[in-house]
Amino acid sequence: MDFGFTREDEEFRARARQWLHDHLVGDFASVAGQGGPGSEHQATDVRRRWERELGQGGWVGIGWERSRGSYGNRAATLTQQVVWAEEYARAGAPARVGHIGENLLAPTLLSHGTDEQRNRFLPAIARGEELWCQGYSEPDAGSDLAAVRTAAVRDPGAGNGAGGYRVTGRKIWTSLAHEADWCFVLARTEQGTGGHRGLSFLLVPMDQPGRVEVRPIRQMSGTREFNEVLFDGARADADHRVGAEGDGWRVATCLLALERGVSTLAQQIGFAAELDRVLRLAVRGGAVERDPVLRDRLVRAWAELRTMRWHALRTLGGNGNGNGNGNGRGTGEGAVPGAPSVAKLLWGRWHQRLGELAMQVRGADAALGPYDWTPHRPYELDALQRLFLFTRADTIYGGSDEIQRDILAQQVLGLPREARR
């Protein structure tokens, strides 16, 4: 496959690089590189201001489908979206707090929303003013969305003139719920149904004291980036249901396919930086000279990361030849069957192995870390220790490996469903 950048792409790269150089200063520069996986709790106030700075520059939602309208963001081809993602990662800019709204909800509204929904929500996302979280997983359902129990009951007094729903249930592993203004929730609107039937996709405001409660979940790495969210009769307008009532499964699965879009390439640049740190540590400490098996594993990790990049580029365009619809957001039309699940399987286990390599390279020192002898101060982990601990979850969140293999088996290979006991 020939995936190259044109002169226009390189001019776009220069503009992106210059903007980042000019604006990533002061407080924003002080939090550069903060807020990534396992560290979402870092500098949230500054990163929220950075989100608005990006919005004012037109860098939020670049490449959204222009035929549906302009929402304050700039036009960009698929390759230019890749360029922006790469330059953002290379600049070491703060991790985004608005990526769920930009990369998941917005493309879903472009594909399945009404004009009124797009005009209400997309400009606020593009300005970096409203943040979103995802209400999918549940304590008794995990990654099996067909087992969702959260209920939404029609209530004429719950919304605007068109009425609305009262949402009751629990969602778990909800990233950034403590920061979000809105949550898109998969709920069962047809009581007595099961499986894929009877689900609806609802947009629920988080600012509902007494009806929406966010409980942080402490990870073994010591951080609290995930949350449990309890809905107790929370209000959702009927006008804020995306798609028809009972058609939530189709909307929700379309959104999941969007989860491995252009941002995957930026994620891989972050992976490359982590791998480079492990490699330098292995060389400096002499581990690559002492242990040929370790040396082989490091080389293999580098090769696998390159393979993941080419796989992402090959499938990103929509049809496996890099010739997609140009919006880079994967509307599902002409998409490579199973590509999102393959991508998740590739990077999840690879990143886990990198965390294991980071500990192996350090040997016994991996069990030690910086310690502050101040009384009652918690033991701190360094970056590689956090990498190792957090990557234990890589094969679970965002759809577990088991669920991804089921999708590939049933939807791509055409294998029968496993009999349920």
From TrEMBL:
Cofactor: FAD
Start and end residues of each Acyl-CoA dehydrogenase/oxidase N-terminal domain: 6-129
Keyword annotations from UniProtKB, A to Z: FAD, Flavoprotein, Oxidoreductase
Positions of the Acyl-CoA oxidase/dehydrogenase middle domain: 133-232
Keyword Phosphoprotein among record annotations: no
Keyword Oxidoreductase belongs to the record: yes
One protein family per Pfam: Acyl-CoA_dh_N
Residue ranges of every copy of the Acyl-CoA dehydrogenase/oxidase C-terminal domain listed in the record: 246-413
InterPro entries referenced in this protein's UniProt entry, alphabetically: Acyl-CoA_Oxase/DH_mid-dom (IPR006091), Acyl-CoA_Oxase/DH_mid-dom_sf (IPR046373), AcylCo_DH-like_C (IPR036250), AcylCo_DH/oxidase_C (IPR009075), AcylCoA_DH/ox_N (IPR013786), AcylCoA_DH/ox_N_sf (IPR037069), AcylCoA_DH/oxidase_NM_dom_sf (IPR009100), Mycobact_Acyl-CoA_DH (IPR052161)
Membrane-spanning intervals of the chain: none
PANTHER family in alphabetical order: ACYL-COA DEHYDROGENASE, ACYL-COA DEHYDROGENASE FADE29
Protein family membership: Belongs to the acyl-CoA dehydrogenase family.
Name listed for the protein in its UniProt record: Acyl-CoA dehydrogenase family protein
Organism: Streptomyces smyrnaeus
